[in-house]
UniProtKB/TrEMBL annotation:
Location of the region described as Disordered in the Swiss-Prot/TrEMBL record: 525-594, 843-892, 1033-1060
Organism this protein belongs to: Diplogelasinospora grovesii
Entry GO MF terms: RNA binding
Biased composition (Low complexity): 530-546, 843-855, 868-877
InterPro entries per the UniProt record, alphabetical: HAT, Nucleotide-bd_a/b_plait_sf, Prp24_RRM1, Prp24_RRM2, RBD_domain_sf, RRM_dom, RRM_occluded, TPR-like_helical_dom_sf
A cellular component term, taken from the record's GO annotations: U6 snRNP
Residue intervals of the RRM domain: 600-674, 675-753, 767-844, 899-974
Protein name, per record: U4/U6 snRNA-associated-splicing factor PRP24
Length: 1077
């Protein structure tokens, strides 16, 4: 029967055998099973506890007077085998194995010391007291989570058995334990996190905390202070991880193996002061590892290497190799693990044979074993993949065999024949890397045999010049391959080689060959470009017809009504450009753009599930500079990556990797050109889910990018990247689709950053006029009649507040630019209604860093841009909503401040409509006013009354707005101290550093929201006389302004209050709070 794997399986296995135990021999065999268990799961608390408890039960069952029912002869034999000393020694051995498990080692310790004290209580002796005293002292100098309990137990023990030395012993124990408490204090934060994660039953959270803990602990082993203790603590933590949540995690096992291996090297070289006996045996560690993760080729490879380094015999190492090949899990993740293991095995055979003192038997073993291993791998691959398997892309085993044949057997012809066989395989023939390896080998052979005449060319010998003809032959054969991935590189090296080593005739022939090949390659590249252009033609034509900067036209409202909105124009600046506040209608040419994602990216599909960004960068490092990698993984399916290069040329060169092996899988590399759509004119509250629903029938969406709103909150568009061109083409057909019952007309165009044009619209064309200082009684008809003197008026819009009153400004659109200019010349500074009006051509604001929306009396949300072009300045009070102004008078600034809170942690890609749609369901009531501040990563939110604001502050705090991001509430001054998170969507640039203030703000999200004081009758302090008039102190004023996220407002002048005033305030507060439940 195969041995169990994992502490729980071992305990269950032994427990099953315990139930079947009926005689003495079976009990002895169970002890042997326990010994195997603690060896396989070294450091497992469960296994050691079960082992020690079982041995202790055997000791007690064989004692006279036991009711276990053993036959007398077995009792006698048991008393001889299961002695008290052996039982106590086993408890001590178990404790030493688990003592550095900080969180739970006390379970075994408490049981052991309890038994020791029971025995002492039966027979009190001086040696017994000294023994237990020393055990307590040693335990108190070991870091553990229940140190205080251990100290209390020691105190009770001294009080009972050594009262005279109580003070001295306790003082010394406390003094000696300082380092232990300090070391545990450093780790306390991780232990608390593990406890929290365990209580929540969140396995992923436990793994994340444990992984961070292990990384931190590994770094501590390099600390020159307490190196031995730190190393033991690290081993203790690994024992918890590898017998717990990471028992079958390959990465954690490799971390542990590398830690032990590097520590052995450091100790041997004198770089580490860790005692040699503390470092685990490498072979024992690897033996446990291959039982837990038998599919890991790298671990099997290390096992073979460690056995070779330890000097094990060929038979023992061969046994390890057979154990690897006979386990059914080695190819669980494909051929990668198989190749890793066989590479280690072949490397061992080669080194053993090439040793200067190697015996003939070692050479014979390699001569037979290396081809046999190569054949085994071929059969394995064919069995798993059929005829699609073409071998190892890196031909590792073949290179080992070639080296053996070349250097040990001096069989150049056999080695060359192996190169020829490899060149007939398409996988290798298409790789320039293979041909360069072969060429270099031929050159090494040529240099090593320079004193021998090996050239088969008679003409060469006649001229007295030796040339590397075989190396030249490699390039000649390579250039005959029509599908070579990088022929340009081969041609370059070929000519250089001929120029350095060959005769003039061969050099001339080489130049001819390269010239012809270059022509063929050029035609091939033209063909590929033409095919790509043909495939892109319909998309390019559509993209050129429309630009990113088309106006985002909302549904028209009633002219002159407060709900009227101006047409918004979308800006499509590429994220990552500098944030200078240039006019948005000034665009750089396509050549000046810093990034052109649409034409510099490629899709990589069919990637292994364990792939990382680092491996992808290494795979493509020879093809250009990588700006970014968007890697997406889903359980059970191959990973997909969108790789962005610096230039279109580099992206095209990366297509040469299409159909190549990545590990043991063949990947597909396709251009991402014409896979991205510029989408706009969707509802303002639309989020990523909404966009995905719109295009769900078109094809698979890779990603959706929303722009940053830090410097322009009017932006409402996104980029939708599809996995295929067909999906993008299907999505583009939805251009013009009616959304929300025809209220919005969707725009979906192919993204083309190089095709930007000047904006269209009245303002961009210079036909819109901005009129200021108008009488507030002015109507649209008044202005239309006035401006018709200069030409035809297309439209007139007068921004109004929520009460319908004019702001004194207006926007007039003329039919032509010339008419607009004439109107400015005629009407500027004209006296209109006793007001000198200012008339000028309307200009787009350079930036708009805030967005405000209000709720009207009918409950509809309204944008502030209908009120004034610039909106309100931050912190300025909003006019009270119609519903709140019961008496028709506006609320005081202090009233507005009391019902206003600040919400922080809002991503800078989220507009005010989306924020409102998230917050209102949480609060359960309408928001009166919301001012979005993307530059500060938050918003100022005003509610209808103070009680609602209080409840909202509590309800909103901690709400998850995006995955891993939670909102927090606070005061307006706190909001303006924050800075929005800086997003870097590039892997070639360092991540933004987090300041201490930002870290503190993030930590504050875990704290409860600030308390809100309710209005009370009177105030603290000395009792004052009736009708007492007093000023408001600065401290009190500051406190009032900061309540519940209120904006800093100018305090009203101090005034006296009578008892009637206080009574009125009290009654008003009770009315606002409503009946209590």
């Amino acid at each position: 029967m195969a041995s169990p794997v994992g502490e729980d399986n071992w305990v269950a296995y032994v427990d099953q055998r315990l139930r079947e135990a009926a005689d003495f021999e079976t009990r002895v065999n169970i002890l042997e099973s326990f010994r195997r268990a603690v060896s396989a799961e070294f450091g497992s608390l469960k296994v050691w506890m079960a082992y020690c408890e079982y041995f202790w039960s055997l000791y007690t069952d064989c004692q006279p007077g036991s009711d276990a029912g053993w036959p007398p002869e077995e009792q006698q034999l048991g008393r001889e085998m299961f002695t008290l000393d052996l039982a106590l020694n086993l408890w001590q051995e178990g404790y030493e194995a688990v003592q550095y498990r900080l969180s739970d080692s006390h379970e075994l310790w408490n049981r052991w010391i309890g038994l020791e004290m029971e025995l002492l209580a039966r027979t009190t002796t001086e040696p017994g007291i000294r023994r237990i005293t020393q055990l307590f002292k040693n335990r108190l100098t070991t870091p553990h989570s229940t140190w205080d309990n251990t100290s209390q137990m020691f105190s009770s023990f001294l009080s009972e058995y050594n009262r005279e030395a109580y003070e001295y012993e306790m003082e010394q124990a406390t003094k000696n334990a300082k380092d232990a408490k300090r070391l545990y204090g450093l780790r306390d934060q991780f232990e608390l996190k593990l406890i929290t994660a365990a209580k929540s039953s969140d396995a992923e959270a436990q793994k994340a905390v444990m992984a961070d803990y292990l990384d931190w602990e590994i770094r501590q082993t390099k600390n020159k202070k307490d190196p031995a203790v730190n190393f033991r603590l690290c081993l203790g933590l690994f024992s918890r991880a590898l017998t717990g949540v990471f028992a079958s995690d390959e990465s954690t096992w490799l971390n542990f193996i590398v830690l032990v291996s590097s520590t052995h090297s450091d100790v041997k070289a004198g770089r580490s002061k860790v005692p040699t006996q503390v470092v685990p045996n490498m072979l024992d560690v690897l033996q446990r590892a291959v039982h837990h993760i038998p599919w890991s080729g790298p671990v099997w490879a290390r096992y073979i290497l460690a056995a070779e380094e330890a000097g094990l015999s060929f038979t023992d190492i061969e046994r390890i190799k057979h154990a690897a090949t006979s386990n059914p899990h080695l190819d669980r993740d494909g051929m990668t693990g198989v190749l890793e293991m066989y590479s280690a095995w072949c490397g061992y055979l080669k080194r053993k044979a090439m040793d200067p003192t190697a015996s003939e038997e070692s050479v014979d073993l390699a001569e037979v074993g290396l081809p046999a291993a190569l054949e085994d791998v071929r059969h394995w691959g064919k069995r798993r993949y059929g005829n699609e398997y073409q071998g190892d892309p890196n031909f590792r085993l073949e290179k080992i065999l070639i080296q053996f044949l070349t250097e040990k057997k001096d069989d150049i012809e056999s080695a060359r024949a192996l190169w020829e066989q490899l060149s007939d395989i398409e996988l290798h023939a298409n790789s320039y890397d293979f041909w360069l390896h072969w060429f270099l080998w031929e050159m090494v052979v040529f240099a090593a045999t320079k004193n021998k005449i090996r050239s088969p060319t008679p003409a060469t010998l006649a001229q007295g010049l030796r040339v590397p003809s075989f190396a030249t032959h490699v390039f000649q054969k390579a250039l005959k391959v029509r599908t070579l991935d990088w022929p340009e590189r081969i041609m370059e090296v070929y000519l250089q080689h001929c120029n350095d080593y060959e005769l003039a005739e061969t050099l001339r022939e080489g130049m001819d060959t390269v010239y012809k090949t270059r022509k063929g390659v050029a035609k091939r590249r033209e063909r590929e470009a033409a095919q790509a252009a043909q495939a892109q033609a319909p998309y390019v034509a559509r993209a050129q017809a429309q630009t990113h900067d088309e106006a985002m036209t909302d549904a028209p409202g009633q002219d002159g009504s407060p709900a009227t909105k101006r047409k918004r124009e979308a800006t499509t600046e590429i994220e990552g450009e500098n944030d200078s506040k240039r006019p948005r209608n000034e665009y750089s040419s396509a050549s000046d753009l810093k990034r052109d994602r649409e034409n510099t990216s490629v899709y990589i599909t069919n990637l292994p599930s364990e792939v990382t960004q680092t491996k992808i960068r290494q795979f493509f490092r020879e093809y250009g500079h990588i700006n970014n990698i968007d890697l997406q993984k889903q359980e059970g399916v191959p990973a997909v990556a969108l790789v962005e290069f610096r230039s279109p040329e580099e992206a095209r060169s990366a297509l040469l990797r299409d159909g190549k092996y990545f590990g043991d899988t063949v990947i597909q590399v396709t251009p991402a050109t014409d896979c991205t759509l510029f989408v706009t004119n969707y509802p303002p509250e639309a989020d990523e889910k909404y966009i995905r629903d719109v295009f769900k029938h078109c094809g698979e969406i890779h990603s959706i990018r929303f722009p940053s709103l830090k410097f322009n909150t009017k932006r409402r568009f996104c980029y939708v990247s599809f996995r295929t061109r067909d999906a993008a083409n299907a999505a583009a057909k939805l251009d013009g689709k009616a959304l929300e019952g025809g209220k919005y007309k969707l725009q979906a165009k192919f993204s083309d950053p190089g095709g930007k044009q000047q904006r269209q619209g009245a303002q961009a064309e210079g036909r819109e006029i901005h009129v200021l200082n108008l009488p507030k009684s002015t109507t649209e008809d008044d202005l239309k009649g006035l401006f018709e003197k200069a030409g035809k008026v297309v439209s007139v819009r007068i921004p109004r507040n929520m009460a319908g009153q004019s702001h004194g400004t207006a926007f007039v659109v003329m039919e032509t630019k010339e008419e607009a200019e004439e109107a400015v010349a005629k009407l500027d500074k004209l006296i209109f209604g006793n007001h000198p009006i200012k008339v000028e051509i309307s200009k787009a604001p350079s930036s708009k860093t805030t967005a405000t929306s209000r709720t009207l009396a009918d409950g509809a949300a309204r944008s502030p841009d209908a009120e004034s072009p610039g909106g309100l300045s931050r912190g300025s009070p909003s006019p009270a909503p119609t519903a709140a102004a019961v008496d028709g008078a506006p609320k005081k600034p202090s009233d507005i401040a009391a019902r206003t809170i600040a919400v922080m942690g809002i991503p800078d890609t989220m507009n005010d409509a989306r924020v409102r749609s998230i917050l209102e369901p949480v609060v359960g009531t309408a928001i009166v006013k919301l001012v979005l501040h993307p530059q500060h990563g938050g918003a100022i939110v005003e509610f209808g009354d103070v009680p609602t604001a209080r409840k909202a502050s509590l309800a909103i705090n901690g709400v998850e707005i995006e995955e891993g991001k939670k909102l927090r509430t606070g005061t307006v001054p706190e909001l303006f101290k924050q800075k929005a998170e800086k997003r870097v969507d590039r892997i070639d640039q360092p991540a933004p550093k987090t300041s201490k203030k930002q870290s503190a703000a993030a930590a504050a999200s875990l704290m409860p929201p600030p308390a809100i004081r309710r209005p009370v009758l009177g105030r603290g302090g000395a009792k004052r006389g009736l009708g007492f008039v007093g000023g408001i102190s600065k401290k009190e004023a500051d406190g009032a302004n900061g309540v519940d996220g209120a904006a800093p407002v100018q305090a009203p002048p101090a005034s006296g209050k009578t008892n009637a005033d206080f009574k009125k305030m009290f009654l008003q507060a009770k009315t606002e709070e409503g009946p209590k439940e």
